[in-house]
Amino acid sequence: MLAAVLALALFVTPPQQTAAWGDYEWRNGVGMLSEHYFRNGAGFPSGYELVNGTRAGSFYHLIFGTRLGSAYFWNNGTEAGSSYFWRNGVGPGSRYHWRNGQNCLSEYGWREGAICDGREILTFQTLCVARALDIPPCRTINARLEDWLEGASSFSTGDPAAAVARMREAVD
To answer: Among 7, 14, 45, 95, which residue's Cβ finds the most Cβ atoms within 10 Å?
Structure first.
């Protein structure tokens, strides 16, 4: 029983490492939140993991999950990573913080560099998919998503493109 609980915790919990984030890191770095890692890495939060993974931080979790990083959480949650928090919150993951903050998930942090943790990375991916942010990594994530959606339209549990469209409608 304990093994099953631990396995479930690993399945739904984002990695708790931290990573450098920002425009310079995206363009010139090789760390977890760089374009180099997105294109060539295999773990969270690489493009490979987005397309082929099943845990938080993958397109599979985006469509079928219920926690942070999922379309369900974006549409129904109230914490960072939800459309409600994007519109009404003040901390990282909110529109207010993007415009006025000075660390991860802020415009200033993007320009000057910041450190993000696993939850913030999942929130960032969600904001990208919802098109709340329009910065280079979001364009890259959304290009992969569009390719993935073309092949995912045959899922018997519903249309993944419709779930993504609902996310994008909730941004205002």
So the answer is: 45
Structure confidence by residue, pLDDT tens digits, 60-70: 999 999 999 99
The CA distance from 158 to 24, in Å, is 39
Tell me the pLDDT tens digit for each residue of 139-154.
Answer: 999 999 999 998 876 6
Residues 6 or more apart whose CB falls under 8 angstroms from that of 4 comprise: none
Query: Which stretches of the chain are DSSP H helices?
Result: 2-12, 23-28, 35-40, 47-52, 59-64, 71-76, 83-88, 95-100, 107-112, 118-129, 136-152, 160-169
β-strands 18-21, 114-117: how paired?
A: antiparallel
C-alpha angle 40/46/52, rounded to 5°? 100
Tell me how far CA of residue 150 lies from CA of 137, 159, 160, in angstroms. Answer: 20, 11, 9
3-state DSSP assignment of residue 46: coil
